[in-house]
Amino acid sequence: MPERADHVRRRGVVPRSALPHRPPEQALFSGIYGLVLASALVAALDVPGEKADPGSDVLWVLLTALASAAAHGYAHVIAQRASVDEAATVSRLRLVLAEWPLVAAVLPAVAILLGAVAGWWSEAAAVDAALLFNTVALFGWGAWAARTAGHGWPSSCRAGCLDMLIGLVIIIANALIK
């Protein structure tokens, strides 16, 4: 079988030079982590038989996202401190602040829950909408990450479907537990 020349592009692979923006791995990691965290929290905070309190749920989702982002960023700081013998620097603060995509990823779920606080829909409807939104967003993040890595559309959609499975597992678990 003849070897493929370097100038020949594999079928279904987009050259990196054709991609307008490649997201940093940290943003992808934190964004996906935030979506999964928000989904799990929203599902867990909606307890059947208890009085609905979407305002409390909003606070818990936000506080947990902030605490998770801070803890993850601080873990990076500790790891850096262990590997480099230096005093605290601005770069260490940047490590903590780099977790902003985790907090940003929970904001759509928070906005949907705020609709329940405002009385636009029930807490149960808000939970279902947030879980659905986050599941679709997981597909989008997975497909986008694959596209920016140079994969074609079929491969990117498969990657998105695999990421979306996480959201589907949370939805199924929520239905089975309740």
Q: Any overview of this molecule?
A:
The chain has 178 residues and is mostly helical. 72% of the residues lie in helices and 0% in strands. The chain has 6 helices and no strands.
Q: Decide which structural class fits the backbone.
A: mainly alpha
Largest sheet: none
- Coarse morphology: globular
Low-confidence stretches: 1-9
Gyration radius, in Å = 20 Å
Strand elements, count: 0
Q: Helical content, roughly?
A: over 70%
What separation lies between the terminal Cα atoms? 57 Å
Number of helices: 6
Query: Mean pLDDT score, rounded?
Result: 86
Q: How do the SSEs run, as a string of H and E? A: HHHHHH
What share of residues are in beta strands? Answer: under 5%
Please render the helix and strand layout as text.
Blueprint: H1 25-45, H2 54-83, H3 90-97, H4 100-117, H5 123-148, H6 153-177
Can you give me a brief rundown of this structure?
Helices cover 72% and strands 0% of the residues.
Name the descriptors.
single chain; mainly alpha; 6 helices; 72% helix; 0% strand; disordered N terminus
